[in-house]
Every structure is written in C-alpha cells, then in structure tokens.
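Repro:
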Amino acid sequence: MLVLGIMSGTSIDAVDYALCEVSRTSVRLVKLWSREFPKPLRSRLHAAAANECFAYELAQLHHDLGRLYATQAKRLKSRAELVGLHGQTVFHNPDRKAPATLQIGEPAYLAEALRIPVVSNFRSGDIAAGGQGAPLATLFHRVVFARRGQHVCVNNLGGISNVTSLDWRDRNASEPRTIAFDTGPGNVLIDLAMREFTRGRLAFDPDGAWARRGKVSDQCVKHLLTHPYFRKPAPKSTGRELFGETFWRKESVFLQRRNLSQHDVISTLTEFTAQSIALNYRLHLASSPDAVFLSGGGARNPELVARIARALRENCPGTRVATIDELGWPPNAVEPAAFALLAFYRWKSLPGNLPATTGARRAVVLGSLTFHGDEQQLIRLREEKH
C-alpha cells in the first residue's frame, strides 16, 4: 500500500512528507519532501508550545495548520492511498496520574484535498491504555533497522532526543529485545538559544559552526546533567514542557552568570545534549550497542554528531556512531515513514504500540480515521445494504 507519512516534530522548523510502500513487515521509501513552516505560522506554533496562546488562537491554529498540510500534500501529487498524519505536538504530559497529549492540525482538510482516508491522533490510544503515548516510532525502527546477531540503536535527534535499542544478539530469539525512551533535549535548547542570540535570523546552529567557535563550560554541563529526568528509568517520555522555553529561560540566567560568550553557550548546550544522551545509555541500557545510527534534523549537525560519538565512546566503549544515511534512509525520512507504517497498521486494525516501551497495559490499535464526505456516504450505503 502507498502511504504518505507527514511529520512536524518538536523542533517546529519544517514538515517532512515521506511517500512509502508499506506492508506489515517492510517499509520502502519512495519519495521524500520537506517544506519549511512560513515564519508567521512558526511563531504561532512556538507560542502554542510555550503555552502562550488563548483557546481561540489554538483553535484557529489547529485549522490553519490542517489547511497547510493539505495544500502542501496536494501539490506533491503523491498517488498515496492513505495518509498518516502525526500533527504538531503543542502539549505532552506523561504524568501517570493524569497524562495528556495534544497534536494539532485538523485532518479533515487532508482527507478532502486528497480524497483518501487520513489516520491521525496516534498517541491517545496508548495513553488511554495506561501508556505515555510515546515513543511511537519504535515499531518502525524494529521492522526496518533490527539486525539479527547485532545490538543497534536508532537515536532520533529532533527537538527532543529519543532512542530505540534493538538487541538481537540472541540469534535464536524470534525478535530483538527492545527498549525505547526519550533521552531529553535534542536540538531544542540549541535552537532556542540561536533564535534569541540572532533575534530570529537563525533558527538553528548551521553545521554546528557556533558550537565549534565556542568553549565548553564543564561546570555548566555538570550542573545541567543533574536534572532528575536523566536518571528516571524507562519507560519515559518528555517534551518542550520540561526541556523547552521554561527550562531555557531559567538555565540561560545560570549560563550568563558564568560570563560565557554566545558561542560558548551554544558549545556548552551542544556538549550537554551529547553528554545527556550518553548518560542515558549508560544508566538505562543493559549493554553497550554495537552501533548507534542518528536520524532527525540533528544528524545534519556535524559538530553535534561528533560530540555524541565522543561521549558514547567514553560511556559505551566499542560503540560505533554513524548517521542513518548509512542504512539508506535520509535522516528526516525516518519519523514520517514511521507514521506511514503506523497508519497502515491502523488501516489493517493491527496494534501499533509496544507496551514495554510506552508503559501501556496492552497493545492497542492506534489512531483515528478521517474520511472525506464521499467515502462516508459509501460506508453508510454498504452498512444499509448489509
């Protein structure tokens, strides 16, 4: 089945569209597009993620974003038979007592524009079953990247960093031992600092140039690594609520008091991100992986990649670090392709979550289906006929 996966992540920089040929046990990338958010819309999304908008503004944004997805997807002329729409996360609270998550971007516009079904709202089903609603790309990682006889990790570097550990060194096992969780910040703090320092001219550190020019404050890195999230055992997930605007506002004061230059701050945040990932591996993985493959926007930052490789060599001896390109996947294709697979699983009424990684009580079918008007009429006619 040809499925169009659509993903806009916690970095809030662009929308990735991946057209994939999908079956239950395989995913092949057919075509990939990326489109940056228009600056006014990006600013509104940042405000929503920072809890700085009213209900009417959020409702308007939900529909405006849905129209953007639909307009861009229609121009792609993708020949897709189904759409998997993640939407834009503006709130994620994995608290076990009262968990909640919200992804916006009204799917009805896509269904109407493309005249095909759309699967969206993937995370709520897992939350209702007692899980955290994340991470959900784990199924895709296992289907596509697990290697019998090897222990590999797929680490996505979006706004938030998440890792899937696929340990299949037991060749007699029917499937790999899988652990997945969010490690903490990916690009989010670097991006927030860059926007502030350049007054919005730059939304990220291009090629890690600012980090390379700066000097790391080991004292600041050590301070930042005391955050309790890093020592929290899996399953765990997080978002901008914990490591976004509020965290940056608080910790930027701490950094400024150390008389760091702007380049020093970016270098320190880059090192902190790398060290936090390595710390999670050391604390929460039973053994060092043979290889770690980096995906997401951060995989295009060579300085961040080098820092992660160095930190992992210190914490996980013998681990090789590479970008996901080595396995034939562009770094920004992995997340939208994951939701293309999850949409296919929803269409086939197959469970899409892995309870051991999300904390859910059981495996459940994920996602809500949205049909365009003609399809709804056909369904009613079939029901009346039978």
